Each structure stands twice: as C-alpha cells, then as structure tokens.
C-alpha cells in the first residue's frame, strides 16, 4: 500500500510531502503562466476545434495500464489547457467569470477538505460557510436572516427548478406523492432564461403551460400583458402557480419591476380568492447589484461619475424591492467572479423548505441522529460540493465596496463603449439600455431600427439584416483570439408588417465583466470591429 499511499497528500502534516505538493502547484502555475498573453484570448495556440479534433481523441484515448508520474500528468494537464479561452480583456462575450484569487484558494480548501455539504458531520466547513453567506446576503437583499434559508446549488437554473418545486409542493402537498395536477401555469417574460422552460419539462407541468409575457422597450416584463394573461388562465380554470421576475435578462439586462408584479399578484389573489402565488426573482445575472442597496447615492462616497451613478440609481429603484420575492439567487460565477459552480439559492421563509424535505426514514444513513444539526435533505442533490467556501472567500476579499467598484466599472466601460461605437459606425444601432452588456446590430443600407421595432417593415428585410449580422458575427468570431464578442439570435422579438409571427433579432454582445476590461481598452475593441467586421478571410 505504500506505493498507493504515495499518490496522496500526507495525513500527518509531513513537511516533505507539503513541499512536494507545493512544487507541483508551482510547476502547474508556471506552465500556465507561460501560456498567458494578455493580448490574446487563448492560453497558447488555439486549435481548430472541428469534428476531427474530437474524433482523434475518441480513437486514441485509453486508460494507461500503469499509472504515470505527476510531472508527466502536469504536462498532460497543461496540454488540455492549451487553447482554452481565459477571461482577460480580449473576452467580451458572455457573463463568464475570472475567478478572483481568494475564491481560488477557497476552492482549493474545499477540495482539500472534501466535505460533503449534505450534512455538517460530513462537511462542517462548508456548512458553516453556507450558514454565514445565507445570513449575510439575506441582510443585503432585505430578507430577515432569522427566517431565511438557502443553499448552494447547480446554477441559476437550479434555483429556478428548486423554487418551482417548492411552489408546487407548497400548494399541493400531495403532488410529491401523486404527481402534479394538470391545470398549473407559470409565467415569465419572453426574454427570460430557458431555465423555467426546462423546469416545466422536468417537474411534469409541461412546457405548454408556460405563459410568456411580452416585454417593454427596456426589455422588462409588460405588466398589463402579465395581468391579462394571468386573468385569462384563471378564468379558464387554470391555477397560476408561479411567476418568475427576471432581474437582469441574460442577453440584454432587462429588469422586471418586481414591486408592481407583486402588486398584481396580490390583487389577483384578493379578486379571485387565491392562495399566495409563488414569486421567484431570477437574479442570476443582476443579483450582485443588490450590493448597492445601502449605498449612499446622495453622498456618493466612492465618487462614481454622474453617468454611472444614474444607472446605479435606476437599478436601485428595482433591486431594493427584491425582498418581495419568495426566493432569489446569487450566481457568483457570473458577475461575482468566482469559479463554476457557485450559485446560492436564497429562500425568504425557511418553513417553505419543509414541503420538499424528505421524511427522516427516507434518509437512513445521514442526518436526524443524535449528532449533527445541519442536514440539507431538502436539496435535489444528495452529495453536495462545498461551494459556499469559495463564495465566502470572495465576499471577504471584495467586501461590499470592492463589489460596488467592480460592478460600477462594468457600467463605466459599457458607457464608453457605446459612445465610441456610435461615433465610429454610422450603420450601427444599440438595442438595449446601459448595463454590463451592450447589444448592437449593424445595417447594410439604412438604419432600420425604429421600423423593425414598431412593425413597419417586412419580415424579409428583418431576416436579411439578421443574416447580414450573422455574417459579421462569423467574421469577428473567426478572429476571436484578438477580441471575442458575443452574440445572440434572440435579443428581442419583433413583428413585421407582413406577418403575425414574432421574429427574433440577431445582435452582437459586448459583455464587460473582467476587471481587465477598462475604459482605456475601448479603442482597441472599436478598432477590431473596424478591421474585421467585413473581412471574411480568417486572420492568421
Ligand atoms: C445564467 C442565467 C441563468 C442560468 O444560470 P446558470 O448558473 O448558468 O445555471 C438563469 N437565469 C438567468 C437570468 C441567467 O442569466
């Protein structure tokens, strides 16, 4: 067994073993650093990730008969890393994080301890961290920390699924045993994330019972349409079980007015004698902006510029009401800059968890014994990673002000990018409000934006502009090692003059989420677009 024991860290704190471990870490970091180039998206050369790239791997991969040494393993691992994009200033595609140092160290601790966060007897460090972050973030968003609860889970999507499951089980406690009734309906804006769509599938309610609400020009949910669609469902014998308020849509950062949504729900509950309708705030993208809930906008202690402050104040008018939700989420692996997967599902009233909890007799080997007092038998996961630890470390390293500064910078850079974009391209239109993301679209001939938006041109013309922009997206995408812009095929739905069918609009995305994406870099992004926008040939 000695030979096998060699494959593990020490169990006695042996200093030689520690030095050996540190030397591996140093070797790995050095080799990764050697591949870094701040003016390039990828670590080392980016291979051509075509079908053959993966086919080759399928053909040649086997488990080695004998194990190999760690030095050699590090070489293999670094080979895996080659070509991978990293989130430096070249990356402006999506809300992907560059994990901060403290969160990486937290992640390392998480793996070193390797606790199972299902039970404090198995994972005391993660349990403590989880209790702490649930409480401290509850205080930030305005939930009462004495009655709130929460746990880390599989993404913003996990939070949507878990909340829908609570909504069903709370209203129909027998549904867990007998299955879901067939007249339940859920509501979200047509720009909300597909998480709810998938959750409708997975809970068995069915996607045809997902009612999509129109959006306003600012990409927030149209409240009149919400009201009307809910009334229609109720009057036809349906039960509105769940409403999703998206606060920060994934592609364009539209923010639903949760205060007014809550008013509508209350009014319907009274008028139609309904029980509480569950309200989940999908704050996967926008949740970090609750860190401004206690910012003194009047004195502006961090000295934000007028333009930035204005946006923050506008956000504040919506995010200060997020505590009206029954649950929400912090996706730290988006704007919070931590490793995947670090999502915290927050629940306003922990009593709601009892509807999805397992009976003690169903969990024979954990929890509910004479020892241990933290047992998360209400999660859908059984074993659970301790991702509360990197979140905890990240909150400590940034503090409230650190997060305020990085979030404000996302806006500052976007404001500068928008100005420069408009100055440099007469044929561009910006299709969303100022936010961490700028969505934009080019026109081959004249600027047709108002006509597209208000249904004054034909579907053929809209689709032609979509195709024109998809081509541009291919051109700049082929050169993404210089700057990697994002895109989406459905930023908005519009109606053409000659068709009743909604047409999705293709737009490019500039997502500023890295601390290395600064105002000084904006001219580089603009130059890149100038050079490659219409250049079909691949850069070499
Ligand atoms: C990203 C996102 C999700 C999904 O979150 P994951 O962490 O990727 O699972 C859900 N809703 C919104 C609004 C999002 O932006």
UniProtKB/TrEMBL annotation:
Transmembrane segments: none annotated. Gene3D superfamilies: Type I PLP-dependent aspartate aminotransferase-like (Major domain). The keyword Coiled coil applies. One of its GO terms (cellular component) is cytoplasm. The keyword Coiled coil applies. InterPro entries: PyrdxlP-dep_de-COase, PyrdxlP-dep_Trfase, PyrdxlP-dep_Trfase_major. The modification N6-(pyridoxal phosphate)lysine is found at residue 334. Keywords: Coiled coil, Decarboxylase, Lyase, Pyridoxal phosphate. Its cofactor is pyridoxal 5'-phosphate. Residues 18-45 form a coiled coil. GO terms for biological process: carboxylic acid metabolic process. One of its GO terms (molecular function) is pyridoxal phosphate binding. Belongs to the group II decarboxylase family. This is 2,4-diaminobutyrate decarboxylase. It comes from Neobacillus massiliamazoniensis.
């Amino acid at each position: 067994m000695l030979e096998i024991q060699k494959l593990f860290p020490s169990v006695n704190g042996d200093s030689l073993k520690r030095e050996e471990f540190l030397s591996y870490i140093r070797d790995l970091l050095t080799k990764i650093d050697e591949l870094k180039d701040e003016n390039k998206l990828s670590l080392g050369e980016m291979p051509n990730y075509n079908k053959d790239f993966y086919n080759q791997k399928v053909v040649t991969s086997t488990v080695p008969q004998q194990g190999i040494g760690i030095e050699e393993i590090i070489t293999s691992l670094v080979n895996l890393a080659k070509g991978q994009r990293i989130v430096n200033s070249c990356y402006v595609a999506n809300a992907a994080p560059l994990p901060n140092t403290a969160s990486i160290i937290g992640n390392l601790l998480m793996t070193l301890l390797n606790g199972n966060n299902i039970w404090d007897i198995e994972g005391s460090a993660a349990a403590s961290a989880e209790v702490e972050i649930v409480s401290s973030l509850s205080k930030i968003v305005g939930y009462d920390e004495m009655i709130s609860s929460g746990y880390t889970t599989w993404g913003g999507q996990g939070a949507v699924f878990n909340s829908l499951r609570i909504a069903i089980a709370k209203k129909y406690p027998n549904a867990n045993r007998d299955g879901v009734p067939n007249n339940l309906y859920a509501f979200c804006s047509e720009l909300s994330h597909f998480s709810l769509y998938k959750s409708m599938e997975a809970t068995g309610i069915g996607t045809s019972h997902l009612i999509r609400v129109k959006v306003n020009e600012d990409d927030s949910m149209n409240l009149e349409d919400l009201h009307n669609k809910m009334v229609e469902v109720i009057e036809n014998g349906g039960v509105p079980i769940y409403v999703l308020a998206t606060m920060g849509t994934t592609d364009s950062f539209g923010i639903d007015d949760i205060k007014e949504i809550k008013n509508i729900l209350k009014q319907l509950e009274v008028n139609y004698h309904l029980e509480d309708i569950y309200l989940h705030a999908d704050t996967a993208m926008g949740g970090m902006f609750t860190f401004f809930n206690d910012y003194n906008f009047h004195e502006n202690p961090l000295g934000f510029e007028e333009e930035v402050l204005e946006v923050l104040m506008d956000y504040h008018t919506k995010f200060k009401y997020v505590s009206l939700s029954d649950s929400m989420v912090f996706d730290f692996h988006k704007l919070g800059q931590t490793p995947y997967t670090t999502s915290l599902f927050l629940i306003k009233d922990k009593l709601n968890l009892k509807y999805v909890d397992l009976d003690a007799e169903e969990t024979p080997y954990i929890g509910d014994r004479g020892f241990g007092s933290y047992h998360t038998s209400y999660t859908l996961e059984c074993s659970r990673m301790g991702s509360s630890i990197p979140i905890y470390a990240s909150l400590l390293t940034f503090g409230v002000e650190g997060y305020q500064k990085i979030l404000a910078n996302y806006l500052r850079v976007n404001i500068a990018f928008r100005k420069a974009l408009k100055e440099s391209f007469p044929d561009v239109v910006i299709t969303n409000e100022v936010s961490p993301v700028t969505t934009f679209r080019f026109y081959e001939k004249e600027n047709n934006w108002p006509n597209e938006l208000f249904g004054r041109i034909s579907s053929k013309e809209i689709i032609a502009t979509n195709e024109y922009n998809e081509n541009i997206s291919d051109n700049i995408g082929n050169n993404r090692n210089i700057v990697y812009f994002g895109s989406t095929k459905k930023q908005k739905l519009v109606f053409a003059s000659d068709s009743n069918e909604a047409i999705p609009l293709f737009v490019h995305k500039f997502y500023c989420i890295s601390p290395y994406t600064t105002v000084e870099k904006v001219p580089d992004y603009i130059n890149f677009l100038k050079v490659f926008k219409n250049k079909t040939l691949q850069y070499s």
